Amino acid sequence: MPSLRQRFENFLNEKNFFTNILGKIAEKTGVSKYHLATGSLSFLGLYLVFGYGASLLCNLIGFLYPAYFSIKAIESTNKEDDTKWLTYWVVYGIFSVAEFFSDIFLYWFPFYYAGKCIFLLWCMAPVVWNGSQMIYNRIVRPLFLKHHGTVDSVVNNLSSKALDAAECMTREVLQTLCNGKSLVRADTRPKPLPEVSQ
Question: Model confidence over 123-161: pLDDT tens digits?
């Protein structure tokens, strides 16, 4: 099995968005892609631990790259990339909801944003061991298949109740407006202006 450094170097030799950018920078600066990537990752890691705005940076990393490639997937004729990015967004959404409730405790940990960033990078990585695919296939999909019938019936029930409530509210508003019009028509005489004292 290849070492972590060999796998990292193999990744840098693949053709993708990041390696293309690294290649262009390497050509202009004369610094190898390996050193550019490790330097950038080191700086990013230190910033996520000690920098101001680490939460924003981490959320941007988890959103911008996937959003760009999701748009490209929508515009392509290939259905595989659509499924890949839909899976990412499902896992990202579940993670965001879980983080909303646990963030008040977790953000006190010094390496929280670095760990979150690594998790999001793992979920979007263009590799076979992609995190969003693993989480979806091992956790989300089995839970969905087990409970989707119950969830569907609850959603349908709530939808019909919401529709009934909206219909009832609309009827009451229209009735109130009609009653208000009849009150205005009954008293059409102009009212005198109040006297002004000097």
Answer: 988 788 889 999 999 999 999 999 888 888 888 888 888
CB–CB of 133/84 below 8 Å? Answer: yes
Distance, CA of 178 to CA of 198 (rounded, Å): 42
The answer to whether 50 and 96 have CB atoms below 8 angstroms apart is no
> For residue 97, what are the contacts with CB-CB under 8 A and spacing of at least 6?
none
Per-residue CA distances from 133 to 9, 15, 20, 102 (Å): 23, 21, 25, 23
d(CA 107, CA 117): 13
Q: 198 CB contacts (<8 Å, ≥6 apart)? A: none
Tell me if the pTM is above 0.85.
no
Which helix (H) or strand (E) segment is 85 a member of? helix 80-106
Question: How long a stretch of residues is the chain?
Answer: 198
Cβ neighbour number for residue 18 with a 10 Å cutoff: 15
Rounded CA gap, 176 and 12, in Å? 68
Average pLDDT, integer, range 9-13: 78
Mean local confidence (pLDDT), 164-179: 85
Q: Per the structure block, which two tokens stand in for 61? A: 């990393």
**Do 111 and 49 meet the contact criterion of CB atoms below 8 Å apart?**
yes
CB 119 within 8 A of CB 61: no
